[in-house]
UniProtKB/TrEMBL annotation:
SUPFAM superfamilies linked to this entry: Bacterial exopeptidase dimerisation domain, Zn-dependent exopeptidases
Stretches assigned to the Peptidase M20 dimerisation domain: 164-265
Keywords in alphabetical order: Hydrolase, Metal-binding
Source species: Caldanaerobacter subterraneus subsp. yonseiensis KB-1
Alphabetized Gene3D superfamilies for the sequence: 3.30.70.360, Zn peptidases
Molecular function in Gene Ontology: hydrolase activity; metal ion binding
NCBIfam families: PRK08652.1-3
The keyword Hydrolase appears for this protein: yes
Protein name, UniProt field: Acetylornithine deacetylase
Length: 367
């Protein structure tokens, strides 16, 4: 029997050496031992989805990505190992823990489970952490009978029927250098960048007051570089930043505010580009038959009324939503811990997640 805890450790070990593809090998090995029909779909060179088309007329898909971010970020190595009821390591929360429990549940159910009647497909998908190519390809190639998607991501096991969108920008700010002792003769690109971030926070605060979203619109500076150790007013600074945009906030309004700030400040030369295309927020109806199924199951497994949340980050669910498929996001793990050197997942939460998934597949027989 595949045990999720040990499988997760194997997935972490492989993914730590190859974040984009490493987990693929243990997933394939597990699927071969399970004996269900699966196929490898090439997205581009060295990028593959694994698809389990378990029904001739599927109503929904269960999807999880297997790629992770590198185990070393900013020179900090991610802690690994088991300690105090937790498993530490890159991808434990995002989202190899979800991969591991899904594989264990598939093993438990096996070939004898009436998959055809359940009307479900399952996919392990590449490239969520970079460009979303795996889910974009998948969403575009699914049969028209698929109406819903359960996307496994770290939600602390809550149900997310909505998700934030995002705008991600790169700015190149060109100032005017001068000797460091005479800063008034130059235009300091780092100073301008610092002031821009503060102005952006003030602008977004006004939008938060206007729209009063469930979680706030927020700017996150992701990368900043510029200047030197020489005694010179910095000439050029690069700033990458992301703006989280919750549901009910028009993404066009946020973009207008960014453009307005950039256009009204002529002190320096600024080159601006969107790093990615718009990723709008989305919402799905929690009162659909699928939504009701998940809520009843949540109450049974977790012994409390369903707790809804807004997913803070872009996920593969965006690509399903864009194709008219209604996504719901759920999964064990804490997104705030993902991409950090202390990422972990609680073993107890994994165990509850297995129970949820196994009962979920049985509920599909009546769906």
């Amino acid at each position: 029997m595949i045990e999720a805890k040990e499988l997760l450790k194997a997935l972490i070990k492989k993914a730590s050496t190859d974040p984009q593809r490493g987990a693929l090998i243990p997933i394939i090995s597990a699927l071969q031992s399970i004996g269900l029909d699966w196929k490898l779909e090439m997205i581009e060179e060295d990028m593959y989805n694994i698809l389990l088309p378990l029904s001739s007329s599927p109503k929904l898909i269960v999807e999880v990505h297997y790629d992770v971010v590198p185990s070393v970020i900013e020179g900090y190595q991610t802690k690994e190992g088991e300690e105090n009821g937790r498993i530490y390591g890159r991808g434990t929360s995002d989202v190899l823990g979800g991969v591991a429990i899904l594989l264990e549940v598939l093993k438990r159910l096996g070939r004898e489970f009436p998959w055809e009647r359940a009307g479900v497909w399952i996919a392990f998908v590449a490239d969520e952490e970079k460009g979303g190519k795996g889910s974009r390809h998948l969403a575009s190639s699914l049969p028209s009978t698929i109406q819903y998607a359960l996307v496994i991501e770290p939600t602390q096991s809550k149900l997310a029927f909505s998700s934030c969108g995002a705008l991600e920008y790169e700015l190149i700010i060109k100032g005017v250098p001068s000797h460091g002792s005479i800063p008034e003769r130059g235009k300091n690109s780092i100073t301008w960048t610092s002031r821009f971030i503060i102005k952006m926070e003030e602008t977004l605060s006004k939008l938060n007051n206007l729209y009063n979203p469930d979680i706030p619109i927020q700017i996150t500076p992701l990368f900043i570089s510029g200047g030197s150790e020489e005694y010179s007013v910095p000439h050029e600074t690069r700033l990458n930043f992301d703006i989280r945009i919750p549901p009910k906030v028009p993404i066009s309004d946020v973009e207008k505010e960014v453009n307005s700030l950039l256009e009204n400040d002529k002190d320096v030369e600024v080159h601006c580009k969107l790093v990615e295309e718009w990723a709008p927020s989305w919402e799905t109806d929690e009162d659909t038959d699928f939504g009701q199924l998940l809520q009843k199951l949540y109450k049974e497994v977790y012994n409390e009324e369903p707790i809804f949340k807004v997913m803070e980050s872009w996920t593969d669910a965006h690509n399903f939503w864009a194709k008219g498929i209604k996504p719901v996001i759920w999964g064990p793990g804490d997104l705030a811990l993902a991409h950090t050197p202390f990422e972990y997942i609680d073993i107890q939460e994994l165990e509850k997640g297995k129970e949820f998934l196994e009962k979920f597949f049985y509920r599909l027989l009546e769906f």
